[in-house]
Design goal:
The chain is mainly alpha-helical. Among the domains are: 57 residues, no CATH class; 51 residues, no CATH class. Helix 4 crosses helix 5. It is elongated and about 90 Å long. The two termini are 64 Å apart.
Length: 162
């Protein structure tokens, strides 16, 4: 009960102060005289702001358009790739078959996830191999694609059931 009375008194004091402030502000505002052309000045200022904003947004967009055009022009004028010279040796050059070709980084990571391994498994392998987590996923994907088991079963690396 005592706290309620104390809070009520504080609120009354705050309300009295606010009422006094409103009265003083009302008296002070009565003395203010606005310019005759104030409305026109405000409208003109708004127009200037809009023009400035449009200009500021148009400059980066124009830069992107010009940059894209320059890039497209450079891409079109680039010289055609030159075919590699034929080897002079008499030994035949063995090209890897598609199954022997190493997987790309992205495909190796997809293989890793396709075998139901998760990010936590990649973190464990990264610590084990002392490499980045992304590199660990790619390396593990390449091993899995070759049919090799992943190390780290004792550390908890195992595929999750689908």
């Amino acid at each position: 009960m005592v706290n309620d009375r104390g809070n009520d008194r504080a609120n009354e004091r705050a309300n009295d102060w606010e009422d006094g402030l409103r009265r003083e502000l009302g008296l002070a505002v009565q003395d203010v005289q606005a310019r005759e052309d104030l409305l026109g000045v405000v409208r003109e200022g708004g127009r200037r702001r809009v023009r400035r904003r449009r200009a500021l947004t148009a400059v980066p967009a124009a830069g992107l358009v010009v940059g894209g055009a320059v890039w497209a022009g450079v891409a079109r004028t680039a010289p055609a790739p030159v075919a590699p010279a034929t080897p002079v040796t008499s030994a035949p050059v063995l090209e890897p078959t598609p199954s022997e070709a190493p997987l790309s980084f992205e495909v190796a990571i997809q293989v890793f996830y396709a075998h139901h391994y998760e990010y936590d498994d990649a973190e464990i392998l990264a610590d084990l191999w002392q490499v980045d987590v992304s590199e660990a996923k790619a390396k593990a994907g390449r091993l899995l694609d070759d049919g090799q088991p992943l190390p780290g079963a004792e550390l908890g690396v195992s595929p999750e059931s689908p």
